[in-house]
């Protein structure tokens, strides 16, 4: 009689107590906590309105409150309306990022410890973000320069961060892992922004004026980003060492190797048609999302007449709801699938844009109701898009392909801000500019429906070969 072999020991699940990746995964969450505070306080709320004030002060010295500044600034010899400078700065920063990202991905995938590049990019960005405290008077040029450095560094760090999702979580758990990262990021952004709301609302309590309160808030976002990045790196050190030299896709050595590897990756894209379809859809609908995020504070301040404290209150509400929304979307994806859940989110984004167009000036309660809707869909759509794409990425080329993803997420979100700025400048109103963003969500949803995630995941498991 053949003896019955003993049962194999149980394999620990991704959330089990013996999971060796648990510490790394928790540390991965922390980086979302770290950078989201900067994205919320600086990029979303304070930077654009503050740079607009500084630019108008430079273009029209002595302008009385309520008067319209009609004198443009000269940026490299090109006349630029002071009210559009912040939007054009975002456009320039994202174009710069688009040029850097593919090379960054090729460089990072050649590293034995990818998380170290996360520290490099985040460190540069945090220093630039902290230095924004020096923006003041009529120094709009300094504001533009620091925004370029901080934005490019942030996006480069996110290439590494997104690629690490494939290292800290198995495919079946990535919807949940990605959603938790986004949720924790919104919570971190909420906490710092709440403190900054108190500061800009009551600056006199610390002996500051309104401008100084904004400067301190900008610096706090950079410091938060840097300090918590160090916490994240401490846990990510537990990830096993990679051996990129043994990978067939590594295109030799030397200074030109990342360029050769990038060309190899781009040529190989034709073997992954679902990746191409997804990237095209994501490039379009996320352009709309990023433009809404970037332009919301300007739209609220200039078109609807809300104060800085009201705008910060709005973003706080968005952050609080988005924390819950990201988790709810993660649960919905487990039941209905990530693709279907994202498509529902894009329908809700379209409703949001239409509603924003019709908000009356000064109607703060209506504006807050709109903020609740934005919060529900904001984190969920982005978190699930990231985890969906992680299934389509060829094994062994995560950073390279996530560099293309970041080009669609933030690195090339220049078209939306450019259109928004141009429409606002040509019409003299931000309302038609916000309505123009509707096309991004409609077209993006139509293209996303054509993506076959199951087939794409099957192709990805074959890896990336030359």
Automatic annotation (TrEMBL):
Subcellular location: Cell membrane
Limits of the Major facilitator superfamily (MFS) profile domain: 274-466
Transmembrane domains' residue ranges: 85-105, 117-136, 142-161, 182-202, 222-239, 275-299, 311-329, 341-359, 365-385, 411-427, 433-451
Name of this chain's protein: MFS transporter
UniProt keywords, alphabetically: Membrane, Transmembrane, Transmembrane helix, Transport
Organism of origin: Kineococcus gynurae
Pfam families according to UniProt: ATG22 (PF11700)
Domain of life of the source: Bacteria
Cross-referenced InterPro entries: Atg22-like, ATG22/LtaA_families, MFS_dom, MFS_trans_sf
Phylogenetic placement of the source organism: Bacteria, Bacillati, Actinomycetota, Actinomycetes, Kineosporiales
Alphabetical list of SUPFAM superfamilies matching this protein: MFS general substrate transporter
Lipid bilayer topology: Multi-pass membrane protein
């Amino acid at each position: 009689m053949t003896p019955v072999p003993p049962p194999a020991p149980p394999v620990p699940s991704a959330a089990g107590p013996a999971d060796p990746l648990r510490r790394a995964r928790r540390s991965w969450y922390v980086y979302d906590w770290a950078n989201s505070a900067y994205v919320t306080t600086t990029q979303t709320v304070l930077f654009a309105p503050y740079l607009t004030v500084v630019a108008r002060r430079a273009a029209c010295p002595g302008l009385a409150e309520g008067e319209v500044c009609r004198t443009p600034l000269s940026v490299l010899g090109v006349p630029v309306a002071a009210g559009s400078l912040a939007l054009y700065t975002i456009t320039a920063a994202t174009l710069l990022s688009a040029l850097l990202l593919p090379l960054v991905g090729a460089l990072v995938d050649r590293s034995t410890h990818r998380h170290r590049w996360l520290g490099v990019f985040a460190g540069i960005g945090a220093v630039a973000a902290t230095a924004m405290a020096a923006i003041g008077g009529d120094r709009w040029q300094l504001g533009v320069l620091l925004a370029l450095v901080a934005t490019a560094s942030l996006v480069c760090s996110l290439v590494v961060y997104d690629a690490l999702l494939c290292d800290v979580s198995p495919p079946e758990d990535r919807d949940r892992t990605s959603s938790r990262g986004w949720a924790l990021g919104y919570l971190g952004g909420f906490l710092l922004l709440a403190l900054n709301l108190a500061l800009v609302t009551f600056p006199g309590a610390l002996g500051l004026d309104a401008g100084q309160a904004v400067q301190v808030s900008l610096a706090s976002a950079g410091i938060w980003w840097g300090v918590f990045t160090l916490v994240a790196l401490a846990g990510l050190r537990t990830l096993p060492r990679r051996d990129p030299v043994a990978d067939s896709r590594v295109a030799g050595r030397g200074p030109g190797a990342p360029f050769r590897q990038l060309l190899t990756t781009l040529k190989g894209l034709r073997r992954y048609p679902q990746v191409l379809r997804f990237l095209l859809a994501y490039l379009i609908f996320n352009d709309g999302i990023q433009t809404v995020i970037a332009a919301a504070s300007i739209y609220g301040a200039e078109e609807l007449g809300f104060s800085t404290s009201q705008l910060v209150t709005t973003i706080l509400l968005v952050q609080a709801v988005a924390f819950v929304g990201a988790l709810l979307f993660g649960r919905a994806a487990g039941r209905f699938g990530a693709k279907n859940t994202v498509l529902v989110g894009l329908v809700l984004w379209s409703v949001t844009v239409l509603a924003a167009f019709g908000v009356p000036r000064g109607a703060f309660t209506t504006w807050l109701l709109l903020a609740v809707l934005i919060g529900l869909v904001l984190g969920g759509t982005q978190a699930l898009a990231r985890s969906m794409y992680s299934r389509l990425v060829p094994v062994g080329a995560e950073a390279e392909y996530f560099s293309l993803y970041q080009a669609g997420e933030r690195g090339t979100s220049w078209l939306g801000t450019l259109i928004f700025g141009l429409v606002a400048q040509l019409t003299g109103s931000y309302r038609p500019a916000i309505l123009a963003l509707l096309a991004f969500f409609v077209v993006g949803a139509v293209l996303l429906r054509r993506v076959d995630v199951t087939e794409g995941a099957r192709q990805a498991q074959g890896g990336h070969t030359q």
